[in-house]
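User: Modeling request: complex.
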Amino acid sequence: MKRAWSCLKSRVAMFATPLLLFAICPAPAQAHLNSTNMGPIYDGLLHFLLSPEDLVAVVALALFVGLRGPAYGRRALFLLPGCWFLGCLIGTLATHGVAFPIAALSFLIFGGLVAANAQISLRATSLLAALLGLLHGYLNGAGMRWSASVLVAYLGLVTGVFVLVALVAAFVIRLRPPWARIAVRVAGSWIVASGLLLLGWAARRG
Amino acid sequence: MSDFRRALVSRWAPLLFAMALWAQSAQGHIHKGEAIGFLSGVRHPVSGLDHVLAMIAVGLWGAQLGAPAIWVLPVAFPMVMALGGMMGLLGIPLPGVEYGIAASMILLGAAVLFELRPPLAIAAVIVGFFAIFHGHAHGTELPPGQSGLLYSMGFVMATGCLHGVGISIGLVHRWTWGQMFLRFAGAFIASASVFFLWRAVA
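Assistant: Request completed. Predicted assembly structure:
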């Protein structure tokens, strides 16, 4: 009897916790995606999350550093968002856009590194990560006008970069079975393929 | 209930319950047609039976050959296919694309039927050569107004998943009846290709 009672109590607790969470954290309604109506930090974050050119490039880097191990992951985790922010600032100051499809290049380089499971040094990886952050950040900032809210939006954006690198790299670092690491490499080859096609689209438009 | 199942239920049930309650609001599109670009990219490779059968044949052959071909072929194929797609986008003509695709089905189907075991490099070259035709024919047909990148990603991912289907079916290779089944599948693909070849010629 006592056991049945404690079992019932644990069942109640099991379902009461999510119910309580649901009650206190309602999902925000999203009317428009360009402006979240939740302030610039969320606008910046959303901009990142809705730009596949940026998202896939960051995922490619995170997959690569994940394959290489924790030291590479830690380096990219802080270097990439930092350089991205810097790139955003430089882009906002500059008046020139970039005609070359940077995203296609990033897909090819990082997707290729993942697909080939390339063993490159930590220093070279850092350099590539810094370049990726600076260039993509520059592209993000190039269309913007100076204002305090833009700076905050950049913070939201690089927070998204930080979280995505952390999640993806940590996920890949934990993968032990050989087939799982091969699946990551297949994903890298898909990124290279998308980059090649993106280059083709850019050439056709240009 | 075993300990394992009890642990599974007590761990995951609250999460699933919370997710069921936590309905997210619907999200509109940032640019009209962009999200549709991804879907038409996904839909495109699976809409043509010739492409589907050839991709599954790549997976089946990879599974028959075993490691490392089982993963080298699916890693190499999308990249070379995209190269073909890029050639199409750049306007570089590739004569006889339809013949190439039909020939790829005959050859890949025959490779599965006879369980051919060439050296890995030759297998990769054969698959890569035909991948160019598949990319050239299918990678360039973007409906107007849709995002080229999302279309390409959808196209590549759907093709990769077709390889996955082929590899998954190919896992039956470990049993004797499975080996026979795969050979029948190869025969089916090779004979289906005759129909596509006839259509390309007619």
